[in-house]
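Shape matters. Shown next:

___
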Amino acid sequence: MALQRKFCPCFQTPWLLLPCGPVEEEEHDDEGELGISFSNLGEKKKQRDVCGEIYEGCCVGSSHGWLVLLDKTANLSVFNPFLGAQIQVGSLKEGLEFTDVDACTVKEDPRAFVPKAIVMFDYKKNKDGVVLIYGSRKKLAFCRYRDGRFMDLEGAHQPYHDIICYDDVVCALSDTGSVEVWDISGSFPTKIMDMEPPFPLKTANFGRSFRDLYSIHFYLVESCGELLFIVRFIGEFANGDGKPVREADLLGDEDIQPKIRPYKTLLFHVYRLDRYKIKWVEMESLGDQVVFLGGNHSMSLRVGDCPGCVKDTIYFTDSYWEGVDDDYSYGGHDMGYYNLRDRSVQRFYDTHRCKMKHTPFWVVSNPW
């Protein structure tokens, strides 16, 4: 299959994919067509409109320049805005256990059914496919484009929180901090490694102490040959000083909802995997690396390849799917960057509105 590149962003810096037009004027539902635009971190402004390019379905993942799309009938496809190409992969109903409850969940919110999906797309190695986390049990599934039929990856550590492609294998992170490694190069996926380091005590203690104030998200990242376990703490409600509070603390006598954005990312813990001792070791610095987290394939890049980015920093977009559609006045807004040196959170893009129905995604141009 020959694909013609329509445009290519400069450098390696991930671009922020945004819905076209003012957010409050968006009238599309998640199943309808949506125009898109890109924002460049270096220029801090919108650089490229591709509103003529549209995709159908809800975006449930982004990797290697491809968006993974799931519509309300459980059909999955991949779309590349740089190539202007969309490929139908198949229906999740083909090969996976699919109940009436599952169908209802997909129809109401595809992101709740598939919280993360990644693309394997390499013409040079004749390797392609989609790996995803799906369902209420957060199981793993895989589908090759040429097959169009999904299959379960029967791991032992569900529910899973993140998946990445790394060194020709797929790594899956569970809620206990364990990592499974799958080889999917053969005719049938095979689990080749199962690492179960103890869950980091610092994060466990923090979670127990502030359980009612934070939502906690886990990410797996490959960085310079190392596997990183990154924990994101999202304050369910944050005051003007960026401190986590309870909702009642933000309400006056006549208020029925807070006048500020209720949830906000406030803190990260970063660990690397010691493969000899099989333990997570806390990291105080990322060195010359910059990490990009959200609904995308979690990634780490050298700051020298990312003009406009700050070293030793985690850039994040809103992937709090449980909260995105929780209220009509906010959601999708939680974007910024966290500096490991001073532990500060800054905003890199002003949404001007609290509600972003179609949440932004990091996208990197694919060289293939």
Summary: Confidence is low (pLDDT under 50) at residues 1-11, 21-32. The radius of gyration is 20 Å. Residues 100-108 form the longest helix (9 residues). Helices lie at 100-108, 110-113, 201-209, 321-324.
